[in-house]
């Protein structure tokens, strides 16, 4: 049985090779953004999941599955064109192809960057977006401005990340970006005490979320629609709005796969290779 990290590496190669087995060029990953009503049109080739790497595509796909998504305020490619004067006081700006939650600016009260814990001007936001494009090596990356999920007064909502295998959520973790920690649980919210990934420390344990069952249903609905043995589904779930889609992640921890522990590699790998366990 293969290790989970090796399965992720194989998935990376399969998704991002220049030419797929069907001969479909890699161009379908980010550039294609058309509003298809029929799911069959999304699934143009075996690697159609690449389209969901574009965060706006992912939002549209999730919405077509009947899942709540953050309201879209603006989309474009020119940072100077962001209509700051018409935005609410709290909002989130992100690149369409950002990764590892690095290319995100959550703003509350008009000028406060919640992630960096600093006040930020509109000019600095524009400059930061251009710098982010340099990081992802895409000077034309799209810019998404959307709803701030949860209460702006309470800061960033919890980010629940569900590891789904064959349409079933088996494992999840909660990411605390301020502490730089991860706390892992099974689907019944039992704490996983064995080390899973050594790049980040264990975070504080928390009470079982009131909306856990609703989040599981949402994650599994999206995982079934994704139609692949593994996908990570990210969900926010403030009590006032319920489960809200975050993103699809094809290959989590892609740049730090060596930090999965032997326990995690064996345990997660078996879920991938053997359905029904």
TrEMBL record:
Top-rank taxon of the source lineage equals Bacteria
Which Pfam families does the record associate with it? ATPgrasp_TupA
List the protein's name.
TupA-like ATPgrasp
Q: Which InterPro entries match?
A: ATPgrasp_TupA
């Amino acid at each position: 049985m293969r290790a989970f990290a090796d399965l992720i590496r194989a998935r990376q190669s399969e998704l991002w090779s220049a030419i797929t087995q069907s001969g479909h060029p890699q161009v379908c990953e980010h550039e294609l953004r058309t509003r298809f009503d029929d799911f069959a049109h999304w699934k143009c080739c075996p690697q159609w999941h690449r389209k969901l790497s574009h965060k706006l595509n992912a939002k549209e796909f999730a919405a077509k599955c009947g899942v709540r998504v953050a309201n879209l305020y603006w989309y474009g490619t020119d940072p100077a064109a962001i209509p700051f004067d018409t935005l609410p006081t709290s909002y989130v700006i992100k690149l369409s192809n950002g990764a590892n939650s690095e290319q995100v600016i959550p703003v509350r009260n008009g000028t406060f960057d919640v992630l960096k814990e600093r006040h930020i001007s509109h000019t600095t936001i524009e400059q930061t977006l251009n710098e982010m494009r340099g990081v992802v090596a895409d000077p034309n990356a799209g810019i998404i401005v959307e709803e701030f999920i949860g209460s702006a007064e309470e800061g960033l909502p919890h980010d629940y990340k569900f590891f789904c295998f064959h349409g079933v959520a088996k494992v999840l973790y909660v990411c605390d970006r301020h502490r730089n920690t991860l706390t892992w649980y099974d689907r019944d919210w039992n704490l996983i005490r064995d080390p899973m990934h050594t790049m980040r420390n264990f975070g504080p344990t928390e009470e079982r979320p009131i909306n856990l069952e609703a989040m599981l249903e949402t994650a599994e609905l999206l995982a079934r629609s994704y139609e692949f043995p593994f996908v990570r589904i990210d969900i926010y779930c403030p009590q006032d709005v319920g489960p809200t889609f975050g993103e699809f992640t094809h290959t989590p921890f892609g740049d730090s796969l060596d930090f999965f522990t032997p326990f995690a590699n064996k345990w997660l790998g078996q879920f991938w290779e053997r359905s029904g366990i």
